[in-house]
Amino acid sequence: MRLLIVEDERRLAVALAKGLTAEGFAVDVVHDGLEGLHRAGEGSYDLVLLDIMLPGMNGYRVCAALRAAGNDVPILMLTAKDGEYDEAEGLDTGADDYLTKPFSYVVLVARVKALLRRRASAGASPVVVVGDLRMDTGSRRVYAGEDEVVLTAKEFAVLEQFAVRAGDVVSKAQILEHVWDFAYDGDPNIVEVYVSALRRKLGARRIQTVRGAGYRLVAG
User: Is the pTM of the predicted complex or chain greater than 0.70?
Assistant: First the structure.
């Protein structure tokens, strides 16, 4: 899943990005409200972490503008302010949740995952089934038949891209966009490394190579 952090405190933004990347998310970071609005409106994000006190445009206005444009991405607002009025204002503009600084990183991750689960339960089932492969995106567990397969955070994220498009061809570019971040400038063949790891754990027959196009997840 891909997250956008809109936070002008650069050290905090970098720390959050590193921690959430370690949780298996692809994370983009911007430090300005206007840039955050543009990126959230143009990008395919699963959740936005939005500070309130931002240069260019404050978080309240960014949130209100996204909702006015019909963008329903979950928004978790972050602020150094506190008090019922500030929380009410944030929620009135369309935010889904609110967290006051300083906050525990563990609490932040729990709030992020709760919002993502809520969105999943409101739409498609969090359990994706492809043949005898079951992937629970809520609990982040994978089963092949009756056996649980233990995956790293990045392996899970790559498999999720295949599972939600089971039977369709998924390109390297699509995987890089959703599993890594827009600033990734490393070797695109990193995708092949993770595909090879998934084949070792799940069985080579499940992930087919479509020459010149990408990969396809099929029933084993």
Answer: no
Q: Is 76:96 a contact under the CB 8 Å cutoff?
A: yes
In this predicted model, what pLDDT tens digit does every residue of 13-57 receive, in sequence order?
999 999 999 888 889 999 999 999 999 988 778 899 999 989 999
Cα–Cα dist 158/180, whole Å: 10
Whole-number Å distance between alpha carbons of 58 and 33 = 6
Nearest-5° Cα angle at 188, 214 to 192? 55
